[in-house]
Write a structure and sequence with these properties.
The chain is 0% helix and 55% strand. By secondary structure, it is mostly beta strands. It has one domain: Sandwich (Jelly Rolls), CATH 2.60.120. Strands 1, 2, 3, 4, 5, 6, 7, 8, 9 and 10 form a ten-stranded antiparallel sheet that branches. Strand 2 and strand 3 form a beta hairpin. The chain is globular and about 45 Å long. The chain starts with 14 loop residues before the first strand and ends with a strand.
């Protein structure tokens, strides 16, 4: 059994996501903090950021914190903004595009453990 935990915003560090220009990730709570089942991550999409089409081996749920940006899911695109929620099943092709002049941010909850991210070849 793990111990309860409070992590302060100042304790979270953000790193660029290699596969996407203008996307940064911070792990709010994860396995390294004693959470055995779920991880919560916060992503920030810079103005003009584009995340290429990709799939994940695991499902994830997202909650939009701020800004407005485009999320592609399968064959559809959706403009999302603060307060919107998403469920992205494992294996679903998805992508992001921030066409605004302001940053967008979302929280993403995922099962802990291994995940593989596969870029989708559009060639």
């Amino acid at each position: 059994m793990s111990d309860p935990l409070v992590r302060r915003a100042s304790d979270v560090s953000y790193e660029p996501v290699e596969a996407a220009d203008g996307l940064h990730k911070g792990v709010l709570v994860g396995e390294e903090h004693g959470a055995p089942t779920l991880a919560i991550r916060r992503f920030v999409l810079d103005p003009g950021a584009e995340v290429p089409k990709h799939t994940n081996e695991i499902e994830h749920e997202q909650y939009v914190l701020e800004g407005e940006y485009v999320v592609g899911l399968g064959d559809d695109e959706h403009v999302v903004s603060a307060g919107d929620s998403l469920h992205i099943p494992a294996g679903t092709v998805h992508w992001y595009r921030n066409e605004s002049d302001e940053s967008g941010a979302f929280v993403c909850a995922v099962p802990t453990g291994d995940d593989s991210i596969d870029l989708v070849d559009e060639g």
